[in-house]
Amino acid sequence: MATNLHVVMVPWLAFGHLIPFFQLSLQLAKAGIRVSFISTPANIRRLLPVPSNIAYLLELVAFPLPSLDNEQLLPQGCEATVDIPSENIQYLKIAYDLLRHPVKQFVIDQKPDWILVDTLPYWVIEIAQEHRIPLKNIRSSPESLTLTPEWFDFPSPLAYPRFLASGLHGGYYGQNASGISDDQRVAKVIQASKAVAIRFGSECKLSKEQVQEIAYGVELSGLPFLWALRKPDWAVNELDTLPCGFRERTQGRGVVCFGWAPQMEILGHPSIGGSLFHSGWGSVIETLQFGHTLVVLPFVIDQPLNARLLVDKGLAVEIERSEDGSFGRDDIAKALRLAMVSGGGEKLRSRAREAAQVFGNRDLQDTYFNRFVEYLKENGAANQ
């Protein structure tokens, strides 16, 4: 049943932020709450269509991303972190900050009951304060990343090694010429196997050496796998991405899917038993609900601390690395075999199954979500 509550969502321009905010928007709309999801045209076009039965409650608001004086710094059409090299994200932030004025006018016109904001648009907080609109930020300040929270009153081994500390700043279903769609190809390879899902998200810009060492390590492990891989900027074409002969040598036990792949369907496939990934928090939650054994290879932002937490809780194996952050194929193969087939990894696999009973518990998640909806209703602008 629809309510009079109106929530405005303002996520940062990275798909690790856009997609969770969009998923939350869908759930709020299903709960009868009117939602305005604000982003840029190119990003909104890349989201899944809004189901027709809630389209009247979920408005996708597209504000054009302002251009910079020097277009070489941020070419036209580059509206998300995935579109640009990591060193150019600073210019995306400059353009993003220029959205302050259209967003402010939208808030003035709409007078929403709530604003849910992401990490980077500090100016949204100022808009909310000026117009007395309740706001929820996912964290109070950037400095909170470096402080021990009040509730964390016990010793912990979690810490960044030097090489990771710097990272804190820093047509799948359709038929094709082969006569078999990619999803059918995947099913044929991984059926009756305990395969490893491999993915590193959109924020990890892996070097050629890193991609190739991962590939050689997966090959050495002898395990079946499904690798969702974006063609890196340094690669001339897809064939140039992987070691010469890799696909031929792993044919029959592994599939590499270039470009987009249906991540949740892959993770939920009964043949997938483990995940080799970057330990981004969204991916951690998605993976744990399926009871996968985790092999983590963190790079930037929150990934290293997430990895330490997972290892500390007995839920993951972390790839061994040198002091400079480098890793080799033997390190990849060793961790994969420990997690998936070694007797020494049985406790790890058992812990993963236990975690699935919590993270995969839909009733429990619905309870938390319903409490959140009630909180929004009871504390919106109309009740201030």
Architecture overview:
Helix 4 runs parallel beside helix 5 and helix 8 crosses helix 14 (329-340). The longest helix is centred in the last third of the chain and has 18 residues, at 362-379. This protein has a six-stranded parallel β-sheet, with helices on both faces. It has helices spanning 15-30, 41-45, 89-97, 100-110, 122-130, 162-165, 182-190, 208-221, 238-241, 246-249, 263-267, 281-288, 303-312, 329-340, 346-359, 362-379; strands spanning 6-10, 34-39, 58-62, 114-117, 135-137, 195-199, 225-229, 254-258, 272-277, 293-296, 316-318. The protein has two domains: 6-145, Glycogen Phosphorylase B (Rossmann fold, 3-Layer(aba) Sandwich), CATH 3.40.50.2000; 162-171 and 181-359, Glycogen Phosphorylase B (Rossmann fold). The protein is an alpha/beta fold and 384 residues long. Helices cover 40% and strands 13% of the residues. This is UDP-Glycosyltransferase superfamily protein. Keywords: Transferase. GO terms for molecular function: UDP-glucosyltransferase activity. It comes from Hibiscus syriacus.
User: How many structural domains?
Assistant: 2
Second CATH tier, the architecture of the largest domain:
3-Layer(aba) Sandwich
List the secondary-structure elements in sequence, H or E: EHEHEHHEHEHHEHEHHEHEHEHEHHH
**Rg from Cα:** 22 Å
CATH homologous superfamily of the largest domain, by name? Glycogen Phosphorylase B
What share of residues are in beta strands?
A: 5-15%
Question: Order of strands in the sheet with the most strands?
Answer: 8-7-6-9-10-11
The count of DSSP E runs of length 2 or more, i.e. the number of strands, is 11
Helix content: 25-40%
Classify the fold: give the CATH topology of the largest domain. Answer: Rossmann fold
Query: How many H/I helical runs?
Result: 16
* SSE class: alpha/beta
CATH class of the largest domain: Alpha Beta
Shape: globular
End-to-end distance, in Å? 23 Å
Average of pLDDT: 81
The biggest sheet, with number of strands, parallel, antiparallel or mixed sense and barrel status, is: 6 strands, parallel
Protein name: UDP-Glycosyltransferase superfamily protein
InterPro entries: UDP-glycosyltransf_plant (IPR050481), UDP_glucos_trans (IPR002213)
Family: Belongs to the UDP-glycosyltransferase family.
GO molecular function: UDP-glucosyltransferase activity
